[in-house]
Every structure is written in structure tokens, then in C-alpha cells.
Write a structure and sequence with these properties.
The chain is an alpha/beta fold. The protein has a domain at 404-506: GMP Synthetase, Chain A, domain 3 (2-Layer Sandwich), CATH 3.30.300. Helices cover 28% and strands 26% of the residues. It has helices at 8-18, 34-50, 67-79, 92-102, 137-143, 179-193, 210-222, 235-245, 254-257, 289-293, 317-322, 369-376, 414-422, 458-465, 494-498; strands at residues 23-27, 30-33, 58-62, 82-85, 106-109, 124-127, 159-164, 174-178, 200-203, 225-228, 249-250, 275-277, 298-305, 310-316, 326-330, 334-339, 352-358, 364-365, 381-389, 395-400, 405-407, 410-412, 427-437, 441-450, 477-480. The strands form four sheets. The protein has a 13-stranded mixed beta sheet, sandwiched between helices. Strands 6-5-3-4-7-8-18 form a seven-stranded mixed beta sheet, sandwiched between helices. A hairpin with a 5-residue loop joins strand 19 (381-389) and strand 20 (395-400). The longest helix is centred in the N-terminal third of the chain and has 17 residues, at 34-50. The chain is globular, with a radius of gyration of 23 Å. It starts with 7 loop residues before the first helix and ends in a 10-residue tail after the last helix.
């Protein structure tokens, strides 16, 4: 018996049948019900087939988040094409390399990003007006009469999208995910959070990033509505959007939600957000205290990767307080273990590589068999992250294997050092990395952002570290900075820190 298709397409049509007149997406002034979204998806899918786009062909998306992005992605799911999710923060040369690797037959692009494609072979480029102009080419495609969409026979495990990794080990790799994996991940996320069709997502993480994609997939799984924040919205505008649209859940990174504290986030006794997903394993869960107490919202932390379709584990706020470094337990569709370099499972408490397996593991890296084999060897996804597990199956993140600092033959996990800074009331943010050292091979360098009006010297920091962690783990260099480099979801970019020069006056 052939396996049943389970994808974003099946979720879309289930919602169009059951929740036809309920809102599926809000994008600025445009509001689409589930049946309206499904109709647009079929029209675009039919148009793509008429243009000669076949199953397996690549369709690149260089759009801001919103209904056009969602429509193109779902149309790809409908016909078996592979969506190539392009990061509009990249430089033209970087996008050109990705386009050369993916070889898209067609690209849907926002006019504000047109200059980014000057060096790229991106196939036919369809300009999508972000203002939803009724006279625009995209609106014409998804609202005018198109040939009937034929019933296609597609493989259930077919690829849905390629999401390119950040390339910390060289050229970015095209992570290939199946529609089944994306739908399963979204369903598991929705079930864990107790989402219903009344859910309204503040979608603020970019959809070219796995966190944003998984949340929207969760709305497809539960029948909830995705409310897309505008790319140019500031923090105050996003908070207004939360109240105006009654958004109940989000995974906004700290630079968005923390400034809300001084912006009257609870209005007329109400803060609509009742579910908040943040990061964990950072050693400072107390920073979410105001969300739990002042907003009366349920906070969870989590851990995941592009290669696993987003969050793989979750931990509730009370457990975060009890075990600040923990990443929690896996979602129901996944398993976690700790492996040594030879692929042997390690007992509780022993340090090794965090490994995962289950329904949302990637198919592999596009046209990169060597990297695929390295990541999927021994029957598990090898995450490249170091960690441990306890007897209860609770995971703990120690840090990236490639970010491990080796000083004088000893291992230093950057997160351990970061956690000491997290307990200092004067410190707003901090991160460390390894820097070359003639005597020890590497030394620890810390970058510190102080809170406004606070003062702290290198000597005082050194004193605070004594008795907290071993001497070889203490920062040998300290640089005070205005801010730390982070990606769109707040992950510290340690590689950028390690590239900065070390000067004598930074010695601690």
C-alpha cells in the first residue's frame, strides 16, 4: 500500500474545508481566509505548471514575510517543486553562489531586493509588489482564471524546501527538507503548545529561517492564523500589532520583546500573548520572568536546528529555573542521545555530541554527499553541538563543537563562561570565544555589554569569576562593546567575535 501524503498541502486543504471562512493570514491590509488562501495557492500552482515547472524543479523565493511568500511555498508543495528560501540579508555575491548551486527555474522577488540578484542566475524573475497591488503581476496570477489544476501523483516524501545554512564551516549548504518532515514538525509543535484554531501567531521571525517556518507550519497544523509583522515595523509598531490583532503566541527574539517592558505592554489589563517560545541553555531564564508574571503567559525554551525543521526540544519555565542550562525533552516525533566520535551512545552525565533522529530530520544537503554522510552517519543526525543527558532524558547544551575553546589541554565551553556573566547585575549581554595564545594554544576572551549607567572594570570581573569556575576558564582578555553580533533569532555569532583583534589593554 502506498504511503499517504502528509504535507503542508494536506493541512491547507483540511483547513479550507473545516475552517473555510476563518482567517488564515493577515499581511498588512490584506486578510485571507483559509478558502481564499487555498484558492490562490491552486491558481499559482496551475500557473507554474503551465510555465513548465515540474516536480523537483527549484522555485526561489526572495520575499519579505507575508501572504505571497506563503502562497508560493504552498504552491510548490502542491506540485512537488522545491522552494529555495533566499535570505535577503545576504550580499549579491552570496546569493549568486546559492543560485548557482540550486539552479532555480524561476524566482519570485520583492522589488526592494532586485539589486541583490544582479550577479545571480536566478531563472525567470517575477516581481511581487509587497503592497498587494491589484494590478500587479502576482495578484493577477493568483486572482485571475487559470487552467484547472490536474490531480498529480506525487511521492509522499518529496522535498519541499531548501534552506541554506549560515556557512560557518565554509560555503553554505542547502538543507533539503521533505514536506512530510515540515508538516510533522509543525503538528508536533502545535500539539505540545496546545494550539487550537483560535490561535493567532505574531510571525516575526523570517520565513527563510527555520524558527519562522516551523511556527507558520504549526498554524497550518492547528488551523490558526498567521499575522505577519511588517519588515519596517519598529518594536512599538509590533506591540501595537499584537494588541490590534489579538496575537496569542510568538517566538520573538529578545531585541523585540524586551523593549516592550517600557511601552505599556499590558493594556486595559490585557496582554493577548499567552504562549511565548524563547531560547534555552543560555543560563539566564530569569530574563523571561516578566513574561510569565506580568503578562501571565506560558514561556517555554527550546533547542533546534535547520536540519531538524526547527525546535527539537522544549522546556517549561519552572524547569528552566531548576535547570538553567537545560534544553529540555524532545518533541514526541523525535529521539535524542549523546554519542562519542565513533557513534557509541554515552551513559547519563557523560559529555559528547547531541544527536537526534525522527520524522523531521533532513533528507540531506543538496548536491553535497560528503556533508550529508558526515551529518547522518551512525543512524542519527549529528548536530555538532556538545552536551549531556541526565537519567530523566533531560538534555543539556554545552556549546558548539567547533566553538569549544582548548586552552592548555583543557576544554572550555563558552556557555559556561557566559553563564557567569549572566549572573552579574551590571551586565546586559556577554559572550566569549577562543583567541590564539602563544603559551596555552588558546585563551578565553570575553565581550561585555554593560547596562546603561553601570560600571564594571576588568579587575572586578576577574574577582567575580574566582570561585565560580576553574581558573583556566576565566577570561584572559575582556573587551567592552556596545552590542554583540547576533543572528535574526538572537544566536551569538562567536565566529565574528573571534575575528576581532586582541590588544594588550584588553588583558584581564
Amino acid at each position: 500500500m502506498k504511503a499517504h501524503d502528509f504535507s503542508l498541502s494536506t493541512l491547507l486543504w483540511a483547513n479550507a474545508t473545516r475552517y473555510a471562512s476563518q482567517e488564515a493570514a493577515v499581511d498588512g491590509s490584506q486578510r485571507l481566509t483559509w478558502v481564499e488562501l487555498a484558492t490562490r495557492v491552486d491558481k499559482l500552482a496551475s500557473w507554474l505548471l503551465a510555465r513548465g515547472i515540474a516536480p523537483g524543479d527549484r522555485v526561489a523565493i526572495l520575499l519579505t514575510d507575508g501572504t505571497p511568500f506563503l502562497t508560493v511555498l504552498l504552491a510548490c508543495s502542491r506540485i512537488g517543486a522545491i522552494a529555495v528560501l533566499l535570505n535577503w540579508r545576504l550580499a549579491p555575491a552570496e546569493l549568486a553562489w546559492i543560485a548557482g548551486n540550486a539552479e532555480p527555474a524561476i524566482t519570485f522577488a520583492n522589488p526592494r531586493f532586485a539589486a541583490l540578484l544582479t550577479q545571480a542566475e536566478a531563472g525567470d524573475v517575477i516581481v511581487v509588489d509587497e503592497r498587494h497591488d491589484p494590478q500587479g503581476s502576482f495578484e493577477s496570477i493568483v486572482t485571475s482564471t487559470q487552467p484547472p489544476l490536474p490531480r498529480l501523483t506525487l511521492e509522499p516524501g518529496r522535498p519541499l524546501y531548501m534552506m541554506y545554512t549560515s556557512g560557518t564551516t565554509g560555503r553554505p549548504k542547502g538543507c533539503l527538507q521533505s514536506g512530510h518532515a515540515v508538516a510533522t514538525s509543525g503538528l508536533s509543535f502545535a500539539m505540545h503548545r496546545g494550539f487550537t484554531a483560535a490561535e493567532r501567531l505574531l510571525s516575526i521571525n523570517p520565513l527563510f529561517h527555520v524558527v519562522g517556518m516551523q511556527q507558520v507550519a504549526a498554524m497550518l497544523a492547528c488551523g490558526g492564523c498567521s499575522v505577519f509583522a511588517g519588515r519596517d515595523d519598529d518594536n512599538a509598531a509590533v506591540l501595537d500589532l499584537v494588541h490590534r490583532e489579538g496575537c496569542t503566541t510568538t517566538s520573538a527574539f529578545p531585541t523585540i520583546c524586551f523593549p516592550w517592558i517600557g511601552m505599556n505592554p499590558v493594556r486595559d489589563g490585557v496582554m493577548p500573548l499567552t504562549n511565548y517560545t524563547g531560547g534555552s541553555g543560555m543560563g539566564r531564564p530569569q530574563m523571561y520572568e516578566f513574561i510569565e508574571k506580568d503578562w501571565d503567559a506560558r514561556v517555554v525554551g527550546g533547542y533546534g536546528q535547520t536540519e531538524i525543521c526547527g525546535f527539537a526540544t522544549f522546556i517549561n519555565y519552572p524547569d528552566m529555573l531548576e535547570a538553567p542550562r537545560s534544553i529540555g525533552w524532545t518533541l514526541p516525533h523525535l529521539e535524542m542521545t549523546i554519542l562519542d566520535p565513533e557513534g557509541n551512545e554515552l551513559p547519563p552525565g557523560e559529555e559528547g555530541e547531541i544527536c537526534l533522529r525522527g520524522a523531521s530530520v533532513m533528507l540531506g544537503y543538496w548536491r553535497n554527499a560528503e556533508a550529508t554522510e558526515a551529518a547522518l552517519c551512525h543512524g542519527w543526525l549529528r548536530t555538532g553541538d556538545l552536551g549531556t543527558m541526565d537519567e530523566r532524558g533531560l538534555g543539556y547544551l554545552l556549546g558548539r563543537a567547533k566553538e569549544l575553546i582548548k586552552t592548555g589541554g583543557e576544554n572550555v565551553y563558552p556557555a559556561e563562561v557566559d553563564a557567569v556573566f549572566a549572573a552579574m547585575p551590571e551586565v546586559a549581554d556577554a559572550g566569549c570565544c577562543g583567541v590564539p595564545d602563544k603559551q596555552w594554544g588558546e585563551a578565553v576572551k570575553a565581550f561585555v555589554v554593560l547596562k546603561p549607567g553601570q560600571e564594571l572594570t576588568r579587575e572586578e570581573i576577574t574577582q567575580r569569576f574566582k570561585g565560580q569556575i576553574a581558573g583556566y576558564k576565566r577570561p584572559r582578555y575582556i573587551e567592552f562593546v556596545e552590542q554583540l553580533p547576533r543572528d535574526p533569532i538572537g544566536k551569538l555569532l562567536r565566529r565574528e567575535l573571534s575575528a576581532r583583534p586582541v590588544t594588550p589593554e584588553q588583558a584581564a
